[in-house]
Amino acid sequence: TGVQTCALPISISGPAELFDRLFTEDSTDRRTRRDQEHRLQASILDAVRDDANRLARQVNREDKAKLDEYLNSVFTIEQRIQRVQERIAIEALDLKDPGPSNPHAPAGMPADRSASQKLVQAVTRSPAVHADYLRVMTDLMVLAFQTDTTRVCSLGLGSDESLFPGVVTVGYEHHAHTLEHHGNAARVEDADPVAREGCRQIHAWYSQFFAETVAKLRAIDEGGSRLLDNTVLLYTSYMSDGGHGRNNYPVLLAGRAGGALKTGRHIAYRKDTPMANLYVELLALLGDTKGEFGNSRTSPKAAYEGRLPELS
Predict the structure, then answer these.
(1) Is the full-model pTM beyond 0.85?
(2) Could you tell me which residue, 11 or 166, shows the higher pLDDT?
């Protein structure tokens, strides 16, 4: 299957938009969303059911089981996307009118991408909605890898503007960005310990979804190996602390990248080794032979000739 990594070349935040782009939109016109009523009423499975039935009659029992597993995955995620979008729409209505409310039955999916983005913003207000959003987006990534729809995917699912009531159980502040700034300082002893604990709880909350994603990849058999064995996932942050620090980025790699990576290890490299060195190694796994990325060789702190020895 080759090496798969965890970046679509475009920015997508809505799960329905991502599903349409991956599985239902015409490749010649990916900027045009399908008619919303049709998308809700007709499953993508209906369009391929006849072909799938013909194929099922031609393959052996084991391959038929894999085909059924794939079709069921598509159908299940499609249904979950609809439920998540309906819940997001309800949250958006509650934000607009936070007084005494009755359940609002959604009239339909957002009419365009602008409306979809406004609905997605409601995700940051509720950890429960946020969790549903994280799970459905990671499920879409796993499905895209399983079906070889794409081999590169970048998911940026965290938000500094998110609120975490119930996740953060210390103090009175639930706003991630505020906690990040109060919980970090040039010297650890100068930081607010309550805010630091709040940050730790948020990080642990996010990490559980990464762990779930790894488990999903590991559970998929690819004929003698697992999907996780043929994938490499990079779990990191765009900054190392709430003070916008750029030193000591948290980095976790999961998966064997088709056997190119040795797992189950902690490797400590020289202090101030450029983060770009890691990206050079990941690009090498994809067949890039340039051996250079960003400041991997030009940084005043350049190390290891722009590479990371012993990684693979």
Answers:
(1) no
(2) 166
